[in-house]
Amino acid sequence: MNDILEVRNVTKRFGMGGVFGRNHITAVNDVSFTIEAEKPEIFTIVGESGSGKTTLARMILRLETPSEGEILFHGTRVDLRASRAERLKFMHEVQPVFQNPFEAFNPLKEVDRYLISTARTFLKLTKQSDIEQAMDDALQKVGLSYAEVKGRFAHELSGGQLQRVSIARALICNPTLLIADEPVSMVDASLRMAIVNLLKSLRDDFGVSVIYITHDLATAYYIADRIIIMQKGDVVEMGPARAVLDNPEHPYARLLKESVLSIDDAGYGDLDPATELMDQINKDRTGRTKMVTRDDGRLVRVAE
Ligand SMILES: Nc1ncnc2c1ncn2[C@@H]1O[C@H](COP(=O)(O)OP(=O)(O)OP(=O)(O)O)[C@@H](O)[C@H]1O
Ligand SMILES: [Mg+2]
What is the extent of the structural domain holding 162? Predict the structure, then answer.
């Protein structure tokens, strides 16, 4: 088995309305995909707010337990109650990068202390010179150096620099998979491309696969190898990113693409196509659906 990660029919339901409430919401519904070890790739998850992207990422990171289905890591079930050694082994290979780097770092702690403790915990390094070397190696990969961050606090760095430090922290472990949940949304537009290009170089130069979660179809188009489009917990379309984004088939995927394009002619656009697509989407959601495979390798959700 040469998959780093296999997400197999994973569903997550959250109870609503207090402890005795019987209502629940299905945040993620029956999602399946695999990330292969030999083929580093950028696997992108897009979808509107509330479509279940973060919940899916949190289940992969073992911060949340699936209600149904399972998540295999190198063919083995990911167990939340695993021993510390097993948890460390998992975290050695699968590392998160969060949305807001200013929240990820305590403002009262020098940022290099995060790097130091990661090097100690995961690489078991004890000698100061070895730790500094590991930190510098990781920081060089993101275009920084140890000298630039040494002794500095989060507020002394720009958002883009800090996000790069948080990626460097993840890279200290030499992970095979990074899970980046909206890593550029809190970063200034001018610095976004630097982070996006960095993710690309992690794939191309260091063989790291990235699960890249975003609202932004433009960056998805630019770096994604494969994409899944989620709507209210369901995957509605999934496949090679260029094929899907050039020519989305599912009405919701088409709507996403049209909403991006319509910003250019805001106020002048014709709302009818969107209304038509919305009708189609609502109709599709009420009936039974299934995923079908197309010739170009994509999977699309269609009415049964
Ligand atoms: N701990 C929780 N308890 C109850 N409901 C939750 C919980 N976490 C998420 N949800 C609900 O699950 C759904 C999916 O949320 P999720 O955060 O995964 O969406 P998302 O796609 O990441 O959205 P965004 O783009 O805004 O980050 C939402 O309806 C959300 O309110
Ligand atoms: Mg989210």
Answer: 3-303
Ligand 1 nearest atom to the CA of residue 230, by list position = 21
**Cα–Cα distance measured from residue 253 to residue 116, given in angstroms and rounded to the nearest whole number:** 43
Query: What is the distance between the alpha carbons of residues 118 and 134, in angstroms, rounded to a whole number?
Result: 10
Give the three-class secondary structure for 293.
Answer: strand
Q: What is the rounded end-to-end Cα distance, in angstroms, of the chain?
A: 33
Closest residue CA from atom 24 of ligand 1:
49
Long-range contacts of the stretch 140-146 (C-beta < 8 A, 24+): 141/168, 141/171, 141/201, 141/202, 141/206, 142/167, 142/168, 142/171, 142/198, 143/194, 143/198, 144/168, 146/112
DSSP H or E run through 261: helix 251-262
CA angle (62 as vertex; 60, 65 as ends), nearest 5: 95
pTM: 0.91
Burial of 228 (0-12, 13-18, 19+ CB in 10 A): buried
Q: Which residues form the pocket of ligand 1, taking CB atoms under 6 Å from any ligand atom?
A: 14, 25, 27, 47, 49-55
Q: What is the CATH number of the domain that holds 170?
A: 3.40.50.300
Per the structure block, which two tokens stand in for 105?
């770092």
Q: Summarize pLDDT for 112-168 with one digit per residue, the tens.
A: 999 999 999 999 999 999 999 999 999 999 999 999 999 999 999 988 899 999 999
Residue 76, pLDDT score: 86
Surrounding residues of ion ligand 2, Cβ less than 5 A: 54
Structural domain tally of the chain? 1
Ligand 1 site-directed mutation target among 51, 100, 211, 215, most atoms within 8 Å of CB: 51
**How far apart (Å, rounded) are the C-alpha atoms in residues 237 and 260?**
17
**What is the chain's length?**
304
